Amino acid sequence: MHSIELVLDPAAEQAVRAAWAALVAADLPSMGRHTSETNAPHVTLVAGEDLVVPTGLDAPLPARIRPGGLLLFPAGPGRHVLGVSVVVDRALADLHEAVHRAAPGGVDTSLPGRWAPHLTLARRPRDVDLPRMLEVLAAVPLPEELGVAGLRHWDGETRTVTPVA
């Protein structure tokens, strides 16, 4: 699987990593447990089997994104993905559409009109852990806005990232 991802500026990345760290400190599932150097807070714009590194995007990168509420995606019996939703304003919608024009072939859930942008906090926590996770996360709220640093292409086969110009 390949993906095109929006990455955060250092202050915003640190804010999300603080939430990850709080979950780890409480002995709960967290993206903070994934120690790969390519593991960074991000918003996936498109994911697909054969995505190319896009060039010549015809929409600017938004300067900031706004986190919304917590959300859950199903991830098997008794499990979910826990994330923070991202508010889709005009700038983010324009970028999302531009990325799809430049790198077509995304899976259905990443297409315009079907996309649920988010920052992942934990993959596959047990449902019984969710109340405690919500309690822990309430103590480390994200800022009202998160700065954007750029885009990257993730290649899941080689586990490498390529910055997108």
From TrEMBL:
Domain of life: Bacteria
Keyword entries, A-Z: Ligase
Name of protein: 2'-5' RNA ligase family protein
